[in-house]
Design brief:
Elements: H1 3-15, H2 24-29, H3 38-53, H4 61-83, H5 92-108
Length: about 110
């Protein structure tokens, strides 16, 4: 995956407002588990974006907004679903933590593994 593909994928997964979409945030907002492999692809795309932007001092607004939403809204939707009785996949909580750490890493310019 190259930077352009990773960037587009993350923007799609984090900002699509179409409720018929299978984007990550739409699925979580609807109380549905991610599509198999979706989190893995998000994490891969985050790593690609991190590597590409590691030495950059700026981040474009559209990407920054998508990263924020992936990190913040995914957790918010997860918690809302949990309180509403949604039975999430057992590893989703850890996956959301990984996504948040990767987003933090992109903003910080250094990889945070924990």
């Amino acid at each position: 995956m190259d930077y352009k593909t990773a960037r587009g994928f993350l923007i799609h997964q984090g900002t699509v407002a179409d409720s018929n979409s299978d984007s990550f945030l739409v699925r979580l907002a609807q109380g549905q588990a991610p599509v198999p492999g979706q989190v893995t692809n998000i994490l891969l795309a985050l790593k690609v974006v991190f590597e590409a932007l590691r030495s950059s001092s700026t981040l474009d607004r559209e990407l920054g907004y998508a990263l924020y939403l992936l990190s913040y809204d995914s957790r918010r939707h997860y918690e809302a679903g949990r309180q509403a009785g949604v039975v999430w996949p057992p590893l989703l909580d850890e996956d959301l933590k990984r996504i948040s750490r990767a987003v933090k890493s992109i903003f910080a310019g250094e990889w945070h593994s924990q």
